[in-house]
């Protein structure tokens, strides 16, 4: 098991840390939020990410990708989490990029992957249909026509949906609304006739959208993977996304914790720094221990991805659930320990808390993943 | 074949020949091989197995050969452990001497002391107990009062120790004693005392679980030769801290160590058996979620132990980790027993009699015993203090 980073990974970690700290600090997110930026991300920053090879991290080198692999990906996401960097990483690289890499035919790969790796194309996965993640409950339909399919339905919480150059849509081609079998993935242009996109403004100031499909025509050639076999693609792709989100959350947690410890050493009340009070010390030490456990889980999950192990689903659910719980603990405690200033918009704690909650429900909340972990463990 | 592969093969062959068949079966009650002068061997194979292992120094595989140890490198020791596991071998020796005292002696004792005490420990000839806590010195261990007065050619020891594990079976005790009453930490020394010396008395303490693994030990005008002092006079606190670190590491493994065996099995299995199963799942959704929260924390903790080991190997260890492990591992273990009880309902709360199976009764007792985990070897609160101070740098 590679629970320790090698030299190349350590270097990548440093590069990523420096990049996000200098090029995409939290002030970047504030600016996008406060100016009600229509795009919601800084496209030039994304191009820079691509230049460093970050956008091609899950894409094979033949298609212009970099060779950092899952552990490299985790490191990049962890660092991006520390500064709440708004990038289309999850949507474009983790979800759509790996879906096309995994299930695309050679034409599709050639068309999309180099453009994703170059940071030139943003893609979004239109999957969810209700407030809780459920990748097999798909009511959006794709009915067979003479020359392809016709899509009808509504998707919610489509990450980067309103800025995507390309959509991947999960629709039902057969079976009952909750069947695992019978889901098909389609590559759909957002400019197609019958596609209506509304931006959804979320608490974390990151991009999401509601997308309605009304008799949208899709060609047979735009099926990604096999008809009715969408879940076979979605399962590993979603796990990749979950592990990536966990890595991002790890960075977020670490940043909040580090900031809180600094504050505990500075803030004075009753003539003493508040970090000398045992009521706070013990809670800080408990958080430290939980974060250590989180770090081990994330590293192991990334390692399992890298080694293509069969316990990836297990570890993805472990990571997603545990990191969600600890991010809740650390953002709540961090805010409480900061006292009144933690409640102000000027301090970053609120931004971290909002991102933590949105990341926690993305691709399945802690309840979803505990249930899945238990099922995978045969109880 | 690489040297390590050769070592593996040799080890396997040797174990095949030297590990009695009955030592490859689960250990029965009263069969724990603690050694010592008064050791009893209900199964004579236990003694054979101990002697065979001790002859190669493999009861303490990484200790130097000069002191009776196996002289193995880390990789070889790992192979030995793997091969022992592979044949389901019982431990040849359970020993506070090996887990706690030995490492401290290796670091702090004189050459003469090492040569005298370590080989006895390796062979399981002397059973040791620990004289640390006192009635008035628990978490504030350095407040201990048991005194060792300098009488020229010997020390005269007076005081009382408490929570001395298995003192009623031990041959010798390693003690923290006060050799300077004017200062706190800097007035403590580390002394080895033969329990047969006049003035040493022990009395077992009955616990809430019904068992008596601990004793009170009374020391009244006990004469101890000066050569039994380990390390420098008044420098015992340094040894004490290091030894506590070994103890914490020993205890912290319990949170996951017991997860798959002993004391009635896994919480999810118990939940299915005692509270019901539906479509292969624990029927009670709330209980199932409680179990999963615990399992996930246990899984993450196990990975953290592995990560720490990997970091140590790569020379990156921070050292303060043992406090986190002790805190997290013992709290996990306590939770595990609470969940087992929750799963078993009234069947998990029987005290004695035929209406309950031995494993049910064992679970009740183990649940009660587990409460001590976050107290012994430094309380959870003390561990959190250590993390706050050493790792997080929060001020006193």
Task: Characterize this entry briefly.
The complex is a heterodimer of chains A (379) and B (396). With 379 residues, chain A is an alpha+beta fold.
List keywords for this structure.
heterodimer; A: about 375 residues; alpha+beta; Butyryl-Coa Dehydrogenase, subunit A, domain 1; Butyryl-CoA Dehydrogenase, subunit A, domain 2; Butyryl-CoA Dehydrogenase, subunit A, domain 3; 3 domains; 4-stranded mixed β-sheet; 11 helices; about 50% helix; about 15% strand; globular; B: about 400 residues; 4-stranded antiparallel β-sheet; 12 helices; about 45% helix
Strand and helix map with partners:
The complex is a heterodimer of chains A (379) and B (396).
Chain A: H1 7-23, H2 26-34, H3 43-51, H4 69-82, H5 89-103, H6 106-117, E1 123-126, E2 141-145, E3 148-159, E4 166-172, E5 183-188, E6 195-201, E7 207-219, E8 223-224, H7 230-266, E9 268-269, E10 272-273, H8 278-306, H9 312-338, H10 349-361, H11 366-376
Parallel strand pairs in A: 1-4
Antiparallel strand pairs in A: 2-3, 3-7, 4-5, 5-8, 6-7, 9-10
Helix pairs in contact in A: 1-4, 4-7, 4-8, 5-6, 5-7, 7-8, 7-9, 7-10, 8-9, 9-10, 9-11
Chain B: H1 3-18, H2 44-55, H3 74-86, H4 96-108, H5 111-122, E1 128-131, E2 147-150, E3 154-165, E4 172-178, E5 188-194, E6 200-205, E7 214-225, E8 229-230, H6 236-252, H7 254-257, H8 267-275, E9 277-278, E10 281-282, H9 285-313, H10 321-344, H11 358-370, H12 380-391
Parallel strand pairs in B: 1-4
Antiparallel strand pairs in B: 2-3, 3-7, 4-5, 5-8, 6-7, 9-10
Structure description:
- The complex is a heterodimer of chains A (379) and B (396).
- Chain A has 379 residues and is an alpha+beta fold.
- Helices cover 51% and strands 16% of the residues of chain A.
- In chain A, the strands form 3 sheets. Chain A has a 4-stranded mixed beta sheet with strand order 1-4-5-8, with helices on one face.
- Chain A starts with 6 loop residues before the first helix and ends with a helix.
- Chain B has 3 domains: 3-122, Butyryl-Coa Dehydrogenase, subunit A, domain 1 (Orthogonal Bundle); 128-236, Beta Barrel (Butyryl-CoA Dehydrogenase, subunit A, domain 2), CATH 2.40.110; 253-391, Up-down Bundle (Butyryl-CoA Dehydrogenase, subunit A, domain 3), CATH 1.20.140.
- In chain B, 44% of the residues lie in helices and 15% in strands.
- Chain B has 12 helices and 10 strands.
- In chain B, the strands form 3 sheets. Chain B has a 4-stranded mixed beta sheet. Chain B has a 4-stranded antiparallel beta sheet with strand order 2-3-7-6, with no helix packed on it. In chain B, strands 9-10 form a two-stranded antiparallel sheet.
- In chain B, β6 (200-205) and β7 form a beta hairpin.
- The longest helix of chain B has 29 residues, at 285-313.
- Chain B is globular, with a radius of gyration of 22 Å.
- Chain A binds chain B through residues 1, 3-4, 261, 264-265, 273, 275-276, 278, 281-282, 284-286, 288-289, 292-297, 299-300, 318, 321-322, 367, 370-371, 373-375, 377-379, and chain B through 268-269, 271-272, 280-282, 288-289, 291-293, 295-297, 299-301, 303-304, 306-307, 310-311, 313-314, 316, 324, 327-328, 381, 383-385, 387-388, 391-396.
